Amino acid sequence: MTGREKVFVLSGLFLLGVFSLVYLASRPGFYRRYSVARVQRELRASVQPGMGRAEVEAYLDRAGFSHSYIAGNGAQPGIGGIEWVLIRNSALGLVSPGDIQVRFQFDENEHLTDYSVREISPRDLAGANQNVHRNH
To answer: Which of 51, 89, 96, 129 shows a CA-CA span of 20 to 30 A to 120?
Structure first.
């Protein structure tokens, strides 16, 4: 291989690397990756049972998490609404990133009773969609 061919091949590899980095950096959530363990640590430090719903929502807003609340229907005493958080593209996998789902459970007075954190993958969602489809 001549010197000119080597320069051409190395230039091509360099450009391929640059384009790959630009692609990865443009993916949603690239700069802000989370793991279930990291979310659990942050929640343990910032959210405690007994907090009011407004306090929990203020924390979620400060942390930059989009969230939605589903009010309880009062059918079960002591059980109130649920606040849902979905952290998109949070898994560190490059091929099939997963999401992290956080569920905050409130009592009828809108005080936090419990929360859970779990990772969900596209495969989980596909299975759930298939189950929903079969039940119709």
So the answer is: 51
What is the pTM for the complete model shown? 0.66
Q: 92 with 49, same domain?
A: yes
pLDDT tier at 133 (50, 70, 90 boundaries)?
very low
- Domain coverage including residue 88: 33-134
- Same structural domain for residues 71 and 128? yes
Whether the per-residue pLDDT at 30 is higher than 60: the answer is no
Percent of residues in the chain assigned helix, strand, coil, to nearest 5: 45, 20, 35
Report residue 87: phi and psi, to 5°.
-95, 105
In terms of phi and psi (left: phi > 0; alpha: psi -120 to 50; beta: otherwise), the region of 56 is alpha
